[in-house]
Write a structure and sequence with these properties.
The protein is an alpha/beta fold. It has one domain: Thiamin diphosphate (ThDP)-binding fold, Pyr/PP domains (Rossmann fold, 3-Layer(aba) Sandwich), CATH 3.40.50.970. The chain is built from eleven helices and seven strands. It starts with 17 loop residues before the first helix and ends in a 20-residue tail after the last helix. The structure holds thiamine diphosphate and magnesium ion (MG). The site of magnesium ion has 6 residues, from strand 4.
Length: 347
């Protein structure tokens, strides 16, 4: 059996800092780091709120921030379409969803803009940002994204569509149908797989018989690209190339970001039952937030005072969002069926 060898991304001018080679301004790199930091602190607070029994459920993006911030900065905000999944806290935050909105979703409070507090938390959406609502059954967003890309192609716009999902979700029929369709019609869609090594308790070798999700790309007539999803600059490079390809009308790409879920699957999971602490500790050495901080320091973009200022600002923003949502009222019961029925049925 022969498999395609996925493209390895090489930068060409080793004397220049990688972000300079990619045409990324220093300020933009620092802004990307800032969004990673804010996402992490917000996410950590959500875990704490769950353990304090303040909120019912949390599903986290800790460990996924580098790829997600890169995706947000590679897309044209409010122009391109994104079909995210439940781990995309950092992605949707960097695209413009507010910490207050996310906290309203955590507490299930009135004014939550994504579903009026009817959905579970982490069902991100924002009409004004072209962020289409997460569906709870995994992989359903993949054919939806292909369908949206078909519309873009019909309308002859220069918009692209991106969808995110985990590697476990690529075992679903929806993944294969969506990619098949996108490949046949050369649709402007980017399939961004965030391979964090597990689907709840199942490791990747129980999810698929090939080593990489990207190995499947040739079967659908598109390139498969693997990159280090813990490295925000490498992620930006890979994602930008796929977006440019789609915008040029050359069709879809299957991207596979290799990373690790640094925390349990959700607030209701105990990952000690299926993976060793040594394994988790080893991956913590590749924590994307620490790597991004190191990159910024080594390239003279960040010093200790700046870092302290970022931490202080993040703390204030998270405190504000938490307090705002905690003190907000619950939605009135009579609103429960809004948006469900055109006309309320007579009971
Ligand atoms: C169709 C469907 N089957 C099962 C589930 C339950 N479920 C929720 S998340 C998940 C694991 C998905 O793993 P992966 O795609 O690797 O994403 P990760 O959570 O690791 O980011 C499962 C099985 C679901 N939501 N939808
Ligand atoms: Mg996974």
């Amino acid at each position: 059996m022969t498999l395609s060898s996925p493209t390895k991304l090489e930068l060409t001018a080793p004397t220049l800092a990688p972000h300079v080679q990619l045409g990324l301004h220093d300020d933009l790199v620092l802004e990307m780091y800032w969004h990673m930091l804010l996402a992490r602190r917000l996410d950590e607070r959500m875990w704490i709120l769950h353990r304090q029994h303040q909120v019912a459920f949390h599903i986290s993006g800790i460990g996924h921030e580098a790829t997600q911030v890169a995706a947000a900065y590679a897309l044209k905000r409010g122009h391109d379409f994104i079909f995210p999944y439940y781990r995309d806290l950092c992605l949707t935050l960097a695209l413009g969803l507010t910490p207050r909105a996310m906290m309203l979703a955590m507490y299930g409070k009135q004014g939550e803009p994504m579903s009026g507090a009817r959905q579970m938390p982490a069902h991100y959406s924002a009409r004004h940002l072209n962020i289409v609502s997460v569906s709870s059954p995994v992989a359903t967003q993949i054919p939806q994204a292909a369908g949206m890309a078909l519309a873009m192609k019909y309308q002859n716009t220069d918009q692209v569509v991106m969808t995110c999902f985990g590697e476990g979700s690529t075992a679903e029929g929806d993944f294969h149908e969506g990619l098949n369709w996108a490949g046949i019609f050369k649709l402007p869609v980017i399939f961004l797989c965030q391979n964090n090594q597990y689907a709840i308790s199942s490791p990747t070798d129980r999810e698929m018989a090939v080593q990489n999700v990207a190995d499947r790309a040739p079967a659908y007539g598109m390139p498969g690209v693997i990159f280090d999803g813990n490295d925000f600059i490498e992620s930006y490079h890979a994602i930008t190339q796929a977006i440019e390809r789609a915008r040029r009308g050359e069709g879809p790409t299957l991207l596979e970001a290799k990373m690790y879920r640094l925390v349990p699957h959700s607030s209701d999971d105990d990952d000690r039952t299926y993976r060793s602490r040594e394994e988790v500790e080893a991956w913590k050495q590749r924590d994307p937030l620490l790597l991004a901080r190191k990159y910024c320091v080594e390239n003279g973009l960040l010093d200790d005072a700046h870092q302290a200022e970022f931490e202080q600002r993040a703390r204030e923003i998270v405190d504000d969002a938490d307090e705002f949502a905690r003190n907000a009222p619950y939605p009135p019961p009579e609103e429960a069926l809004n948006g469900v029925w055109g006309e309320l049925p007579k009971i």
